[in-house]
Design brief:
The complex is a heterodimer of chains A (76) and B (254).
Chain A: H1 2-12, E1 20-25, E2 29-35, H2 41-45, H3 50-65, E3 69-75
Parallel strand pairs in A: 2-3
Antiparallel strand pairs in A: 1-2
Chain B: E1 2-8, H1 11-22, E2 29-35, E3 50-56, H2 71-81, H3 87-97, H4 102-121, E4 128-134, E5 137-143, H5 156-172, E6 178-183, H6 186-208, E7 212-213, H7 219-229, E8 235-240, E9 247-252
Parallel strand pairs in B: 5-6
Antiparallel strand pairs in B: 1-3, 2-3, 4-5, 7-9, 8-9
Helix pairs in contact in B: 2-3, 4-5, 6-7
Classes of the chains: A alpha+beta (76), B alpha+beta (254).
Chain lengths: 76, 254
C-alpha cells in the first residue's frame, strides 16, 4: 500500500529522493502520509486536486483488495 | 457444433456477453432465447435475468481485440501458428509496426511499465498488460482482472489509472501523448451504452419538442454523446455546468 503511493508519487515529482511515505496502521483504517518537496506539492495534488483524487481512487481499489480502508494524507 | 448458455440483463445484453466470451461476431452464432428476462418493478423487485442458448457452428474463433485496419492479416498468420496465445504476439507485432519515431516507442514502454508497476503494487494477480500505439495514442489493455476491481464504480478506478499513467508518460516525454487504458472492454461497452442512451434521448427530444438533459458526465463520456448526435440535423447538443462533470442538453431544432 505504502509502496504503491511511493511509486506513483516518485514518478510524478521532480525530486523523487525527497518523497517520504509513512503508513500508520490502525485496526481497520490505515493512514498513509505522503511528504514531498515543497516545489513538488502541486504535482501530487494537481489541478483542482485531480492527481490527489486519482491517487486516492487507486488506493481505494487497492484497499478493497485487502478488505481494509486506507486514507491518503498529503502533508505540507 | 457447440452449445453454451449465457445470461444478461436482457436478451441484448446476454447476446453481447456471449459474443464477448466466445470472441465471435453475432453473425457466427445461432441464438435461442430460453428466458426473455424482465427488469421487474423499478428494476428492483422481481427482476429476472435473460437467458439464452448459443449454438456455435464449427468456425474459427475471431480474436477479441480489433485495433483497426492492418491488424487483420497479422492475426490470420498468427492464428494457425499459435492459436492458444493468439493475442500476445499480435500486440508485439503492433509495437514493432507502428513506431513513428524512437520517442514514440519510448512512450509506449514507459506507459506499459508504469501501469504494470502500479498493478503489481496494488497487487493484481494474473493481470497482463498489452500495449499498442496508433495515431499518437497509446492504448493499454489490461487482461485478467476478473473482479472488475480495476474498473471501479462507473469506471472511476480505470479513469484514475489512466490519468496517473498519462501524467507519468507526459512527464518523461517531450511530445504530448495520450494514453488510453481499458480492461475487459469496459470502454467499448460504455461507448455503446452511451451511444444508445444518446439516440434514445434524441428521439425523445424530437417527440416532445423540448430539450432533454442527461445526467452529469465525464468529458470523455460527453464527447461520445455529442458525437452520437452530431449527424442528426434536427438536434443540437450543448454542455452545461461547471467543473469536471457537466450535463449534456439535447435540443430539438425549430
Amino acid at each position: 500500500m505504502k509502496d504503491l503511493i511511493a511509486y506513483i508519487a516518485k514518478a510524478l515529482v521532480d525530486k523523487p529522493e525527497e518523497v517520504v511515505v509513512t503508513e500508520i496502521e490502525g485496526a481497520q483504517t490505515a493512514v498513509i502520509e505522503l511528504k514531498v518537496a515543497k516545489d513538488d506539492l502541486g504535482k501530487v495534488i494537481g489541478k483542482q486536486g485531480r492527481t490527489a483524487r486519482a491517487m486516492r481512487t487507486i488506493l481505494g481499489a487497492a484497499s478493497t483488495k485487502i478488505k481494509k480502508r486506507s486514507v491518503l494524507e498529503i502533508i505540507e | 457444433m457447440e452449445t453454451f448458455e449465457f445470461q444478461g440483463k436482457n436478451t441484448e445484453d446476454a447476446i453481447e456477453n456471449a459474443c464477448r466470451k466466445l470472441n465471435l461476431t453475432r453473425d457466427d452464432i445461432e441464438i435461442e432465447v430460453i428466458e426473455p428476462g424482465s427488469a421487474g418493478i423499478f428494476g428492483l423487485v422481481g427482476g429476472r435475468k435473460a437467458r439464452i442458448r448459443v449454438i456455435v457452428s464449427a468456425k474459427e474463433p475471431q480474436p477479441l481485440e480489433k485495433f483497426g485496419p492492418g491488424t487483420v492479416e497479422e492475426i490470420e498468420e498468427d492464428k494457425y501458428a499459435e492459436s492458444e496465445q493468439m493475442v500476445e504476439p499480435i500486440f508485439e507485432d503492433k509495437i514493432g509496426a507502428n513506431i513513428e519515431s524512437p520517442e514514440d516507442k519510448n512512450g509506449l514502454i514507459v506507459a506499459k511499465d508504469a501501469l504494470e508497476k502500479i498493478l503489481n503494487l496494488i497487487p493484481v494477480e494474473g493481470a497482463s498488460v498489452t500495449a499498442s500505439q496508433m495515431d499518437g495514442i497509446i492504448s493499454l489493455y489490461i487482461e485478467g482482472d476478473k473482479s472488475g476491481l480495476l474498473i471501479g464504480r462507473k469506471g472511476r478506478t480505470l479513469d484514475a489509472l489512466q490519468f496517473v499513467v498519462n501524467k507519468i508518460v507526459n512527464k518523461t516525454l517531450e511530445k504530448r501523448t495520450h494514453v488510453v487504458i481499458d480492461s475487459e472492454s469496459y470502454r467499448q461497452r460504455r461507448k455503446e451504452f452511451l451511444t444508445q442512451m444518446a439516440l434514445q434521448m434524441g428521439s425523445k427530444a424530437k417527440k416532445i419538442k423540448k430539450p432533454v438533459v442527461t445526467n452529469l458526465l465525464y468529458p470523455h463520456d460527453r464527447r461520445i454523446v455529442h458525437l452520437a448526435l452530431k449527424d442528426d440535423n434536427e438536434l443540437s447538443t450543448k454542455s452545461r455546468g461547471e467543473g469536471l462533470f457537466k450535463k449534456v442538453i439535447i435540443i430539438p431544432k425549430g
